Amino acid sequence: MAKEKIGVLVMAYGTPASLDDVEAYYTHIRRGNPPTPERLQELVDRYQAIGGLSPLLEITRAQVDNLEKRLNEKSPHEFVAYMGMKHAAPFIEDAIKRMAEDGIKQAIGIVLAPHYSMMSVGTYHKTAKEAAETYGIELLSLVKDYHLDPDFIQALVNRVEEVLQRFPGKAKEQVKVLFTAHSLPEKILEMKDPYPQQLRETAEVIAQRVGLKHWETGWQSAGQTAVPWLGPDILERMVSLQKEGVKQVLICPIGFVSDHLEVLYDIDIECQKLAKELEIHLERTASLNADPLYIECLSNVILQELAKT
């Protein structure tokens, strides 16, 4: 008798497929409000600065394919993984519709973001639940977070230790390490949202494992809205660090698992430009992308969630 297939809904933020799609992409992010011509040009310029397009779509496809393969190696169940994006095709709704068309009745979901916030991962979950109801898919479980998964932590420890070797002297004692994540509106603090604390927990475990003396968590890539966002922004913090006499900085963007605009532009171009002006030696850890340890992490937490059902 054939095993019943379980769908795996792998959710990510999304990215424009071409420069022509940038306006539609940001209009979707802004809930139907298109960016101003000036803001649109600024965004297009950023994509052109990193080579014309973000590699996020290609990376997410690799993550999904590798995850499906690893799950089927480890489990007696038969898994079929689907990619669903929040703000670009294929949308989360598209992925669940495809599941239904493929005859899948049950699915489990995970967001490619390790730290939970009601305003980030929570919104993916809401979209997935609504689409699953529409298309008759039973969502067995949705992974909430995995910010302390041992394989996730190990992958980041490996990267921090590797990059520390690029600094002279006793890097663990001298380099300031900034563990960063995407900023969110400050109102999450009033909501007792776990996001800032989970970020701190991830950073603390990595710092202990590596033996770092000087580290902190920080924020980057805040949205341009009227409401205040968590700060200070990483650029502001670099200026204050330079005034404090810091000459060596390592950025480890633990809130981001893939190369995309917020890493390739905000850190590699914007932060590096400021670092040169401040005469700071700045390095960044490589993104996890499709690292086997990260794929192992994802497969672990999905199977753990499935076992609870």
From TrEMBL:
Subcellular location: Cytoplasm
Alphabetically ordered keywords of this record: Cytoplasm, Heme biosynthesis, Iron, Lyase, Metal-binding, Porphyrin biosynthesis
EC number(s) reported in the record: 4.99.1.9
GO molecular function, one term: lyase activity
Major enzyme class: lyase
Pfam families (UniProt xref): Ferrochelatase
Pathway: Porphyrin-containing compound metabolism; protoheme biosynthesis
Superkingdom assignment: Bacteria
Binding residues for Fe(2+): 182, 262
Presence of keyword Cytoplasm: yes
Catalytic activity: Fe-coproporphyrin III + 2 H(+) = coproporphyrin III + Fe(2+)
Record-linked InterPro entries: Ferrochelatase, Ferrochelatase_C, Ferrochelatase_N
Chief place where the protein resides: cytoplasm
PANTHER family documented for this protein: FERROCHELATASE, FERROCHELATASE, MITOCHONDRIAL
Protein family according to the UniProt entry: Belongs to the ferrochelatase family.
Protein role: Involved in coproporphyrin-dependent heme b biosynthesis. Catalyzes the insertion of ferrous iron into coproporphyrin III to form Fe-coproporphyrin III.
UniProt name for this protein: Coproporphyrin III ferrochelatase
Organism expressing this protein natively: Ammoniphilus resinae
Lineage: Bacteria, Bacillati, Bacillota, Bacilli, Bacillales
